[in-house]
Amino acid sequence: MLARLLQPEAKFVKPVLTLLCHHKWTMFDVALSSAGAHIALATSSDEKHPPENMIDGKAETFWSTTGMFPQEVVIRFQTMMKITNVHICSYNIRKLKLEASEMDESTKYDTIAETEIDETDSQLQQEEIQLGEKRAYSLRLVIESGYDHFVSVHKVVVSGQAVHQ
Amino acid sequence: MPTTLRCKCVIVGDATVGKSSIAQVFHSDGSHFPKNYTMTQGVEVLVKPVNIPETTDSVEMYIYDSAGKEIFSDLVRRFWDHPSVVIVVFDCTSETSFSSCKKWLERIRSQCPDIQIPGALLANKIDLDQRRVISPKAGKELAQSNKLEYFECSAKEMQNVDTPFFYLANEFHKLYQERVELFDSLT
Ligand SMILES: Nc1nc2c(ncn2[C@@H]2O[C@H](COP(=O)(O)OP(=O)(O)OP(=O)(O)O)[C@@H](O)[C@H]2O)c(=O)[nH]1
Ligand SMILES: [Mg+2]
């Protein structure tokens, strides 16, 4: 494996790296659509850049907001989760709030994190938010402001595990 | 596939220049001109979709018709967060309203100094050409020096009122396309 990684040819290096990343995320990412999560609501939808792109496991595809603030998106997990950490790949987000709900189909949300992300120039913002341990059925991201009219969210990775009742 | 953008269009300018008239004529497709003056006492929001030519996309214009009277200035500012585009209106028969344009524009731009806000400078009441004191040339110069596009209209005669809105909707749509290309290039 190591020997292959050290090979200079890109064609060898790339697939190995992809494999490693993929492996790491699928172990824990409860927000992936392939793990049964889905987008329950989004305040913007350009059909070329739909909100589902945030949870498809790929950084190349993204959700684009289509104007005005705040913007919201709700990710519903397959079941009740214990979540510890959220990683967001985005561009142009300034103020971000995370809210969690412990109920299915609920409108009652508790704020679990608030952050201001630094502006980046021609590269993605990578924000890691530690949550301790929070129970959540749904996770709501509220983008309260941005560094521009439009923001993109490429990936939302939520580390956690199912709560067994 | 059609995309709908949302655009917060803030209209500013001195009291009585015709901001509400312009907003209402545009919003009602020319079927309503408020003949009697009703002072706006805060912000009135009107929503109107605009189709973007040669696409299936549209831009929903959220028009924030703001009070021009100075006593409301603190109040109206609270509604101006994250403006997408701006229209600065003056009355072409009033020198004072023309010299206020810079002040209004600065108030909007200071909301978000680092963000590019497409804007229009709009001369209203051109039906009163006998009383006109601001020439098209003076209007164009002010627009140019402040990176605005210049337009003239008469809300009363329902003449050319739509043009600045269409222009700004198109500019906003162009910005969106540029940004999406940028997002695409980041990975
Ligand atoms: N002759 C003429 N009168 C106009 C025109 N547009 C507006 N008016 C008149 O000007 C007066 C003021 O118009 P408004 O639209 O209420 O002005 P405003 O800018 O909204 O004023 P505030 O709400 O106080 O800031 C009204 O009596 C209108 O009928 C126009 O194009 N020509
Ligand atoms: Mg008014």
From TrEMBL, chain A:
One of its GO terms (biological process) is intraciliary transport. It holds the Pfam family F5_F8_type_C. Coiled coil: none annotated. Residues 42-147 form the F5/8 type C domain. GO terms for cellular component: centrosome; cilium; intraciliary transport particle B. This is F5/8 type C domain-containing protein. The lineage of its organism: Eukaryota, Metazoa, Spiralia, Lophotrochozoa, Mollusca.
Automatic annotation (TrEMBL), chain B:
Its main location: other. It comes from the Eukaryota. The keyword Protein biosynthesis does not apply. PROSITE patterns: RAB, RAS, RHO. Keywords: Cell projection, Cilium, Flagellum, GTP-binding, Nucleotide-binding. It is found in: Cell projection, Cilium, Flagellum. GO terms for cellular component: intraciliary transport particle; motile cilium. InterPro entries: P-loop_NTPase, Rab, Small_GTP-bd, Small_GTPase. One of its GO terms (molecular function) is GTP binding. This is Intraflagellar transport protein 27 homolog. It comes from Elysia crispata.
